[in-house]
Amino acid sequence: MRLPRRRILAAALVLASAAWVGAQTPPPDANLATTVPSSTGSLETAPKPTGYESDLYCFGYLGGLNDPFVAQVTSAQDVAEQVDFATGDLLYLETGADRGLRVGDEYWLVTAENEVFNPSNGASLGRFYQYRGRAVVLCLGAHSATIKVLDSCTDIPMGAFLKKFDPIPIPLARKSPPATACDPPSGKPAGRIVYSRDGVVALGQDTPVIVDLGIANGLQPGDFLTIYRYSTGRDYGIEPQGTYWVNVPPPPGVEIPRTYLGEISVLEVGDRWAIGRITDSYRLIEVGDEVELK
User: Fold this and answer.
1) Residue 16 pLDDT
2) Residue closest to 263 by CA, chosen among 215, 216, 223
């Protein structure tokens, strides 16, 4: 049986097209397999962000008891109708070009909050300054300025201060296995959790906190801290320290295992303080619990 001439030509064209497509397809890349996740989870060892912008941009920092600021909010476009302000609102300053402000510059909107004390000995660590939001200079006079709120984390009150905005990068790090029972101390710098967002005392996973370790102790963004406490004994235990009740270490000569509570990823570091995020919590964590660099 003979096929019609048209069918023979059509079949030949289909075969020729398939051969051409095959010739244009590049050969498999031998290195491609290294970028595909395997059943062993090889990509899990890649560095990952250790926190989120909100952990820093909507928290704050420890500063001096009376830090100076470039300007202060004194009025607003809707001051007759509003007490607090938020994203999109226009705020007025009584300083402008005379203080070095420029149109387009961005600033933190900051409020001075309470003095922070070390829960272990009652020593002052400075004042907590809260980031309320971020604003940009919209228009400028010699001794006045109008700023627009770009982002607000919470209500922005009249009297908020302006602090020059500098982006804070979120560190990337590889997470190592957490400490477990029977693991010995690392022997590295140790301190305590001294402050938490909104003054919360009972803490858990994903909570931003401040610890009393910083650059002076060798901390860097991307480091991890182990959280622990010692169980109470007959002759020692929980004692009042400042405004907190804290677990105190055993006295000299008394050896007792640690109770491991979780881990903190270090996000931002000051001279003698650092902001971190609790990444793991195995039981309730409290302000005053001890931390140690891994």
Assistant:
1) 44
2) 223
